[in-house]
Design a protein that fits this description.
heterodimer, A: alpha/beta, four-stranded antiparallel sheet, 12 strands, B: mainly alpha, MetI-like fold, binds adenosine-5'-triphosphate, binds magnesium ion, transport (chain B)
């Protein structure tokens, strides 16, 4: 049996009367890459954001390394402090990078180390430099985000997350906001992380990445988790007609 | 005929009177910043009562002319047994009036920040106070600077209204001067020049600050 880094059980999420997640079950194996795919509006981001409780799920359970996130017991919210404690070990990378524009690349990465991990400024600066070197930005450390390309900004955002030494990384369409020629550099960094054994959950429209890097691919539609299996069985021999039709649309759109 | 000597002579006492104008506008903006920040915080708080209070505060103060506020405030103080100097009453009224606008300036800047800015901080486990102190406020301040300087310039001009409660600031001093010299044009032109110099200086200060905080 493989250890699960994230156990999602029977999760439901409502926005008013609209049900964004319907009885979602998913196990994310530790040290592996799980890709979440599916049509727009199917609930991929919502599910990803429930994993670090940026979005509150209404019922069910999400356990990170066995520990329930967001609630102490069903219906009883966890304290802010306990939630922050859990979030420290979950890195997140957003589609829009969300770097802080008033700080240099290095300050962006150091900030969490100082405020959350309590490191000294010098120590945090040194760790930030290491993290930035790792994503290939040693020479851009003192640039502000406005002086970086989209791909570089997203790599800073990845460095900001990995500097915190997370046990789990969540990516929400990390390359969707990038010009096509900048996608590769971000995917390369992500592949390196995957090769090092980082547990990753990646919402993506990059089927190539899902096919070649993912260990598991989960397909969502209309708030339901339709299937989770090996990339081959989801992407090449899909059984469910909903997956087949999604892939057909994908191939049509990407062949010109 | 326009008399240049009279114009130059009026500059001196009016420059002296400018200290009241500056005291009222700077005091007003300082008080306005403190109260405006609190009102803005109330408006963004989870408590419905506080939010209603902030909304009421802003709409009342923006809806009543400063002159009327001044008169109401000034004449209501004795009723509640307070005998404060006209200067204090003026600064307090101007400050309270400015607080409504400043609160809106803050709110606008904070709402203009992409939600992801705070989310990125929350996601790495930052505490709410740090999210505000390190991520939201520094950006809100930078974004608000032009509007705040604008507000300060408006206050310098609005401070002419406090002449109604008997403070000898630039406008009131020039009225007195015009009455004794019988040379209104020269005197008021001198007053205009002094206002202009003050506000050009403030605008320059604003540009310098913006330049310094630009990213
Ligand atoms: N804050 C919200 N309030 C109301 N409805 C929301 C909110 N956020 C998301 N939704 C709805 O929930 C559904 C799932 O949204 P979600 O963002 O998770 O989709 P997604 O699979 O990530 O789509 P995309 O590929 O376009 O990013 C959508 O129908 C969306 O309109
Ligand atoms: Mg999404």
């Amino acid at each position: 049996m493989q250890a699960s880094a994230v156990e999602i059980r029977n999760v439901n999420k409502f926005y008013g009367p609209f049900q964004a997640l319907k009885d979602v079950d998913l196990s994310v194996p530790a040290g592996k890459v799980t890709c979440l795919i599916g049509p727009s509006g199917s609930g991929k981001s919502t599910l990803l954001r429930c994993i670090n409780f940026l979005e509150e799920y209404d019922s069910g359970e999400i356990r990170i390394d066995g520990r329930l996130i967001g609630y102490d017991a069903p219906g009883r919210k966890m304290s802010g402090r306990a939630l922050r404690e859990m979030r420290r070990s979950i890195g997140m990378v957003f589609q829009q990078f969300n770097l802080w524009p008033h700080m240099s690349a290095r300050e962006n990465v150091a900030e969490g180390l100082i405020r959350v991990r309590g490191l000294s400024k010098t120590e945090a600066g040194a760790r930030a430099a290491e993290a930035l070197a790792k994503v290939g930005l040693a020479d851009k450390m003192d640039n502000h985000p406005s002086r970086l390309s989209g791909g570089q900004q997203q790599r800073v955002a990845i460095a900001r997350a990995i500097a915190m030494e997370p046990r789990l990384m969540l990516f929400d369409e990390p390359t969707s906001a990038l010009d096509p020629e900048l996608v590769g550099e971000v995917l390369t960094v992500m592949k390196t992380l995957a090769a090092e054994g980082m547990t990753m959950v990646v919402v993506t429209h990059e089927m190539g990445f899902a096919a070649h890097v993912a260990d598991r691919v989960a397909f969502m539609e209309r708030g339901e988790l339709v299937a989770a299996d090996t990339p081959d069985r989801i992407l090449h021999q899909p059984q469910d007609p909903r997956i087949q039709s999604f892939l057909r649309t994908y191939h049509e759109r990407n062949s010109f | 005929m326009f008399s240049i000597p009279v114009f130059l002579e009026s500059l001196v006492p009016l420059f002296w009177a400018a200290r009241f104008t500056l005291l009222i506008s700077v005091g007003g903006i300082a008080l306005g910043l403190v109260i405006g920040t609190l009102v803005c915080a109330a408006g963004l708080s989870p408590s419905r009562a506080l939010r209603n209070f902030a909304a009421l505060w802003v709409s009342f103060l923006r809806g009543v002319p400063l002159l009327v506020q001044l008169l109401v405030f000034y004449y209501s103080l004795p009723l509640i047994g307070l005998d404060v100097p006209a200067m204090v009453a003026a600064i307090v009224t101007v400050g309270i009036c400015a607080s409504a606008y400043i609160s809106e300036i803050w709110r606008g800047a904070i709402n203009a920040l992409p939600r992801g800015q705070a989310e990125a901080a929350v996601a790495i486990g930052m505490a709410p106070t740090d999210v505000w102190r390190r991520v939201i406020l520094p950006q809100a301040v930078t974004m608000s600077l032009p509007a705040l300087i604008n507000e300060l310039i408006l206050l310098v001009k609005a401070s002419s209204l406090v002449s109604v409660v008997g403070i000898l600031e630039i406008t009131r001093a020039s009225q007195a001067q015009a009455a004794t010299t019988f040379r209104p044009l020269e005197v008021y032109l001198a007053a205009a020049c002094i206002y202009l110099v003050i506000n050009l200086c403030l605008a320059a200060l604003g540009r310098w600050l913006e330049h310094r905080t630009a990213v």
